[in-house]
Amino acid sequence: MEPLFEVVVFLAIATLGAALARKLGLLAPILLVVVGLALSFVPGFPQVRLDPDLVLVGILPPLLYVAALETSVPAFRLNLRPILLLAVGLVIFTAFAVGLVVHLLLPAVPFAVCLALGAVVAPPDAVAATAVARRIGLPRRVVTILEGESLINDATALVLLRVATMATIGTSVGVGDVAWEVLVATGGGIVMGLLGVVVFGFLHKRITDPLLDNAVSLIVPFAVVFAAEEIHASGVVAVVVTGLGIGHKMPLLMSAASRLQIGAFWRLVRFLLEGLVFLLVGLQLREVVRDLDEPLGFLAAITGAVLVTVFLTRFVWLFPATYLARLVPRVRQRDPAPLAKFPIVIGWAGMRGVVTLAAALALPLTLAQDRPYPRQLFIWLAFAVIVATLVGQGATLPAVARRLKLPPDDPVQDALSAAGVQQQASRAARERLDELAESAPTAVVERLRRVAQERTNLAWERLGGTERETPSQAYGRLRQEMIDAEREVFRAARDSGRIPEEVLVRAYRDLDLEESLLRREEES
């Protein structure tokens, strides 16, 4: 019972921390890391040692899967060049830069193991990027690039870590070995991901029960990861490919009830896992510092050197990658050079997270011929990078974004585009209604025509100013009052015994769905 009790305690703390962060206007990941750091030194508080396999196979796949489900495939494809430059090029550049710096400061340690540390700290975290970028209102394209980078860069880092680890334990590694590892990891991951789209898309399309659809959706990321790992392919790539494919085809694969239920389910899973992940990262501090025996001055020097290298390499890579590509006329014509403030904010958003810590804990215990190396120091360096980037860069990212005054997405253009498409959709709906009008009473047909017209009107109303209440807003306000009155009548009837509980549940479900639609229209 004790492990289960600890899990419940951690989830409760993560939930309370997220609620407090919203109350204080802070970013929940930052607050939860700080809370974890503080709790790690509370006497009697449970000590937690993260299992790398639990993180890489148990926690990361569902978080990557839900992020991929919500990623726009057209937007991802449109930004593929900057995403790959960051997710592949920058990870390799950072890994070699950090490896070189650490090797210069620790010349007795082979470069291969220093490169392994570089691979550990190189990739920004998928959870951190998604959790922070969306909540501070960064422009849509910046969010797409950050999310796309964080979906792929773990695969690059883990492949590089695997190759470097092979060298550290005495396995001969040549150019052919590296190429084969990359081919198997990336190519195998893509193949397994596409297979996941086919298999689970087939299942989703034939399942009509929303509960079963939800259950299958929960199984997908784990099944894909296990299948990819069986052939030594990248589970990260496989999960991302499957998530992108299923998410893109979701309107054709699932019923409306399934999509609503799956959306709510994955929002809850992401909320709980994100909170738990950041709390657990903070809780590792006592475990990480316990076995450190390096002199304080040297520890501070090497930690500062790694932090500066990780920070600077992102900017050193970003600006040439952003502007040198525009020297090619075809690229410049298709995608003009952005203002400097865009690569600055993307550079500032390089937060590391739990994957870095899990990869550090997976470093080999000894080198070839059982030679020791400062493994605990390397784990500390990875932990320091996580805390410094999460708390330092993550906490200041909103201020940096405000200071740079990034031009936000144009809400008027968004509303105009939505209204134009909605008008086309309503026209198509009316044409379909005209084809079927003879099969229904005239009053029903007229009522449906009014519904189609009201949806068009609502879309165009969003283009107006906010000084005066629109007809749709007045409708929403009054209908909300009516729904509240209906709920009270049903509740009173249940309490007096005039209707059974089952009738109340069905009535509340219908009223809740209508209220949810009203609230969605208010928020949009």
TrEMBL record:
Membrane topology, from the record: Multi-pass membrane protein
Name of the featured protein: Na+/H+ antiporter
InterPro entries: Cation/H_exchanger_CPA1 (IPR018422), Cation/H_exchanger_CPA1_bac (IPR004705), Cation/H_exchanger_TM (IPR006153)
UniProt record similarity statement: Belongs to the monovalent cation:proton antiporter 1 (CPA1) transporter (TC 2.A.36) family.
Role summary: Na(+)/H(+) antiporter that extrudes sodium in exchange for external protons.
Domain of life: Bacteria
Transmembrane segments: 24-42, 54-76, 83-102, 108-134, 155-176, 182-203, 234-252, 264-285, 297-321, 342-365, 377-397
Cellular compartments annotated: Cell membrane
Keywords of this entry: Antiport, Cell membrane, Ion transport, Membrane, Sodium, Sodium transport, Transmembrane, Transmembrane helix, Transport
Domain Cation/H+ exchanger transmembrane: 12-401
